[in-house]
Amino acid sequence: MTITVDQAARFAEAFTAMADNMGRAVLGKDHVVRLALTCLLSEGHLLLEDLPGTGKTMLARALANTVEGTHARIQFTPDLLPADVTGVTVYDQHKGVFEFHPGPIFHDIVLADEINRASPKTQAALLEVMEEGHVTVDGVAHDVPRPFMVIATQNPIEQAGTYRLPEAQLDRFLMKTSVGHPDAESTEMMLLEAGVRDRARLAEPIASKALVDELVKLAGEVHVDRAIVRYVRELAEASRELDHLQLGLSARGCLALIRTAKTWAGAHGRTVVVPADITSLAAPVLCHRLLLDPQAQFSGITVDGVIEDLLAAVPPPTDRA
User: Fold this and answer.
1) At 308, which CATH number?
2) What is the Cα Rg of the chain in Å?
3) Mean pLDDT, residues 67-75
4) 164 inside domain
5) Measured distance CA(7)–CA(56) in Å, rounded
6) How many other CB atoms sit within 10 Å of the CB of residue 298?
7) Are 48 and 151 in contact (CB under 8 A)?
8) 226-240 and 303-313 helices cross at what angle (nearest 10)?
9) Containing structural domain, residue 276
10) What is the model's pTM?
11) In this predicted model, which residue has the larger pLDDT, 248 or 4?
12) For residue 258, is it within any domain?
């Protein structure tokens, strides 16, 4: 079933209202805010990598506040254990049974702050729940609530005492982006409102879980023409043949590009995906999935440059299939 014009208009209206609400807390970052919402409504997870003080945590909290669900913040540290994230089974002496005590991962929006500071064992505790939507403890599977989204942050310049996320775990994130410093006007506005210590509270809960679930379903009904599918396949095949890439676009990456493009199209009030949706989302969806070889890194080649070359080398479709 394909989304109707009226449904697309309602989707775009709700999407814009949520983005504007988050924009009250995160000034001058409309594009990043819309990427975060796209990630949520595509049922994916977001990785924010940026310098300290740019508003990574603020963005995550603003999104959590916008949705009328539960949210939790996990501060990742070297001594954090997997059970501190997923939960633990405890024996109740009065009842004579084992009871599961859920961890902070059992919330709708989970902020994994400075995820690269935890050990690989603790990082791996997120793999199952991010991919399958449930946690297995002592052989018993426990489903997390819906909607469910992990927003992880990491600081690229502080590497002491950190553990680099492996490619297999990076691939679980639907998108990776950075917030960046605000523009001049937004900076001045923020300084004028310096008395507001917690800007995330300015984002009010305006979207119920039922609304989010409805938007997720509508996004899934946006039409994708066979020509768009072929375009994504050609991008993936071209990326695997580039000399300076050690790892090209995977099948999961292709699915991520299609899923996010459908949500992005709906956010713009369209019932079908157009090539511009793919090119607009190529950077946040592909940047953490394409792995440069050591020689390319030594030569100063960047992933962003590779993505630009890839989009230039593969022409987008001009007609429907």
Assistant:
1) 1.10.8.80
2) 20
3) 85
4) no
5) 32
6) 9
7) yes
8) 130
9) 223-321
10) 0.89
11) 4
12) yes
3-class SS of residue 287: coil
Q: Are 261 and 228 in contact (CB under 8 A)?
A: yes
CA-CA distance, 166 to 72, in Å (whole number)?
Answer: 24
User: pLDDT tens digits for 297-321?
Assistant: 787 888 888 889 899 999 988 877 6
Q: How many domains does the chain have?
A: 1
Q: In this structure, what token pair is assigned to residue 312? A: 């230039």
List Cβ<8 Å contacts ≥24 apart for 132-141.
135/86, 135/87, 135/103, 135/105, 135/106, 137/86, 137/87, 137/88, 137/89, 137/100, 138/89, 138/98, 140/89, 140/100
Long-range Cβ contact pairs of 86-93 (< 8 A, separation 24 or more): 86/125, 86/129, 86/135, 86/137, 87/135, 87/137, 87/142, 88/137, 89/137, 89/138, 89/140
Q: Measured between alpha carbons, how far is 50 from 156 in angstroms, rounded to an integer?
A: 6
The residues pairing with 223 across neighbouring beta strands, listed in sequence order, are: 272
Between strands 140-143 and 134-137, the pairing is: antiparallel
| pLDDT tens for each residue of 255-290 | 999 999 999 999 999 999 999 999 999 999 998 888
Asked if 222 and 18 count as a contact pair (C-beta separation under 8 A), the reply is no
How much is the pLDDT for 159? Answer: 63
Q: What is the phi/psi pair of residue 99, to 5°?
A: -120, 140
The structure tokens listed for 52 are 């300290």
Percent of the chain scored above 70 by pLDDT?
A: 98
153 within domain boundaries: no
pLDDT (tens digit, 9 = 90+) per residue, 16-46?
A: 999 999 988 888 888 999 999 999 999 999 9
Nearest one of 121, 149, 120, 118 to 133, comparing CA atoms: 149
Can you read off the two tokens belonging to residue 174? Answer: 């639907």
| Residue 197 covered by a domain | no
* 71 SS3 class: strand
